Amino acid sequence: MGRIDLQVPFAEKEGAKRLGARWDARERTWYIPEGLDRGSFKQWLPEPPAPNVRAPSWLLACSTRMCWRCRVLSRVFAIVLPAGYEALMVDDDPANDHWQRSEERALLSYVDGMPPSVAAQLQRLAPRYRVDYSQTTHSFYRMNHCEHCEAKLGDFETIEERGTFDQPGVELLELHEPFAGWCGSRTL
Question: Contacts for 130-134 with beta carbons within 8 Å, 24 or more apart?
Answer without folding.
Answer: 130/27, 130/28, 130/29, 131/7, 131/29, 131/46, 132/28, 132/29, 133/7, 133/8, 133/9, 133/10
